[in-house]
């Protein structure tokens, strides 16, 4: 059943107001990975609580306790739990999104202030941190609830909401909450299926539904030696230097063309079948899509299927940065006393953080030992999450296919995503339900990057898509 015309008309008529709301959300720098912004993450939770209550949702901000980040004990931002409707004749769908964002500084290379939504009238781009990941999609749900509230219409399904503020930093605390609230009579009792809008089309033209995500293991490798930073003219050539050791060890993790060098890690990958390979061959994707989204002609392969499988079904290892290294402009002649290299591995079936940890630790220690350095090495796993693959034959996916065809006039591609949303698998396992990823944004949105954007048309048509999905879900078998 398509969404009523009144809902679609309401969304069209209120498009500018929805964009104003997105601007308010983007203006709150709810960066979960940086302790000094924790108050902003909490502020964002209160902003959303107000928005949800205004459209009739009963909301609870659930305390998730404390955690330690970079040596500092911090209160976790609350999970936002909400309910609307309790009709036993209707299906109940759980909507998940996250209200935290990745860090962003203008000096990273943004053309504009990352926390001020800029509307580029020429291109239709809504530019700002979190516009696509994940504040736009989250507000897409609220926009639909607002339309129904304003029009005095009942929703076609019961809604449960779980919005979190730590997704970009390992979803700390949420797994425990989901498991604790999964039983009969508990908060998640009665959920028939889950919908997550927190990923992107493969390209800029074809909508997709996503039935798989890679997992993640994130490591910090700390090398220390000197009691304090040293003058390289005084100590260079006389002491073991932590940065030199770190660069050596980090250079042994992965080849420039993406081959992971840690023994054992690749052996766990599920073998590729001809049937599975054919799925990638069929997708609307080209090497030019990855290169235009990346902003450079840098694809590892000129083969479309190889590139797609590199993102969707093989693991990858990325080196993210070095904490403690000299990184400012100028030419400071320092030997840093302690440096920490950060890298992560995106995991695929049958890899898990538990079964790859030992391979990583052994290999890093062995490579460091080869240096004969008197510095010390510590390796820490910062966070992890398992990969997830769902059945796209479920009615949840059928409803989303129909909704996409109605709104975009196209049958969506069925994709697996290279990113990670650790809680997806927790929902699937703890609630024993099907989970669907129904993206709003495009492949060139630049999530986690500079000048992140969401196209106006994706925000508004995407809002209609989410609403239409709820109607299709109410009648699909
Ligand atoms: N939109 C999902 C997303 O970006 N997820 C993050 C999750 C994460 C884990 N650690 C840091 N971020 C991702 O990087 O895939
Ligand atoms: Zn996200
Ligand atoms: Zn993200």
UniProtKB/TrEMBL annotation:
Free-text remark on how the cofactor is bound: Binds 2 manganese ions per subunit.
Site (Important for catalytic activity): 231
CDD domains: M20_dipept_like_CNDP
Cofactor: Mn(2+)
Superkingdom per UniProt: Eukaryota
Matching PANTHER family: BETA-ALA-HIS DIPEPTIDASE (PTHR43270), CARNOSINE DIPEPTIDASE 2, ISOFORM A (PTHR43270:SF4)
Protein name: Peptidase M20 dimerisation domain-containing protein
Protein's organism: Sphaerobolus stellatus (strain SS14)
Lineage of source species: Eukaryota, Fungi, Dikarya, Basidiomycota, Agaricomycotina
């Amino acid at each position: 059943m398509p969404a009523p015309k009144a809902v679609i008309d309401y969304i069209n008529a209120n498009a500018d107001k929805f964009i104003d709301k997105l601007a308010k959300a983007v203006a709150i720098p709810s960066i979960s990975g940086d302790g000094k912004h924790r108050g902003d993450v909490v502020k964002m939770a209160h902003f959303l609580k107000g928005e949800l209550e205004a459209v009739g949702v009963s909301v609870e901000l659930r305390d998730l306790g404390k955690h330690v980040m970079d040596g500092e004990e911090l209160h976790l931002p609350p999970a936002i739990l909400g309910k609307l409707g309790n009709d036993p004749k209707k299906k109940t769908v759980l909507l998940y999104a996250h209200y935290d964002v990745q860090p962003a500084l203008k000096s990273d290379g943004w053309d504009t202030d990352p926390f001020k939504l800029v509307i580029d009238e020429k291109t239709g781009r809504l530019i700002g941190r979190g516009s696509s990941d994940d504040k736009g999609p989250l507000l897409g749900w609220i926009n639909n609830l607002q339309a129904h509230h304003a029009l005095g219409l009942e929703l076609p399904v019961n809604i449960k909401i779980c919005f979190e503020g730590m997704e970009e930093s390992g979803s700390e605390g949420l797994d425990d909450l989901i498991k604790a609230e999964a039983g009969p009579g508990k908060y998640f009792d009665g959920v028939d299926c889950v919908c997550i809008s927190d990923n992107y089309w493969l390209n800029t033209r074809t909508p997709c539904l996503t039935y798989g995500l890679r997992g993640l293991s994130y490591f910090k490798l700390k090398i220390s030696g000197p009691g304090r930073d040293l003058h390289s003219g005084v100590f260079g050539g006389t002491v073991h230097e932590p940065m030199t050791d770190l660069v050596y060890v980090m250079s042994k993790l992965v080849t420039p063309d993406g081959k992971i060098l840690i023994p054992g890690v690749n052996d766990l990958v599920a073998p590729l079948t001809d049937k599975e390979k054919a799925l990638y061959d069929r997708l609307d994707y080209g090497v030019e899509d990855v290169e235009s989204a990346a902003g450079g002609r840098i694809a590892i392969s000129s083969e479309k299927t190889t590139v797609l499988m590199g993102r969707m079904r093989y693991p990858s290892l990325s080196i993210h940065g070095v904490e403690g290294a000299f990184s400012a402009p100028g030419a400071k002649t320092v030997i840093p006393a302690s440096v920490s290299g950060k890298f992560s591995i995106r995991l695929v079936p049958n890899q898990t953080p538990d079964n790859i940890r030992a391979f990583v630790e052994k290999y890093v220690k062995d490579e460091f030992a080869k240096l004969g350095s008197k510095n010390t090495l510590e390796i820490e796993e910062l966070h992890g999450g398992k990969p997830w693959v769902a059945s796209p034959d479920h009615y949840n996916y059928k409803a989303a296919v129909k909704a996409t065809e109605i709104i975009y006039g196209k049958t969506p591609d069925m994709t697996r995503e290279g990113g990670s949303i650790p809680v997806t698998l927790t929902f699937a396992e703890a609630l024993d339900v099907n989970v669907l990823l129904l993206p709003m944004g495009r492949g060139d949105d630049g999530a986690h990057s500079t000048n992140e954007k969401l196209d106006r048309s994706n925000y508004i048509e995407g809002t209609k898509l989410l609403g239409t999905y709820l109607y299709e879900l109410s009648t699909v078998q």
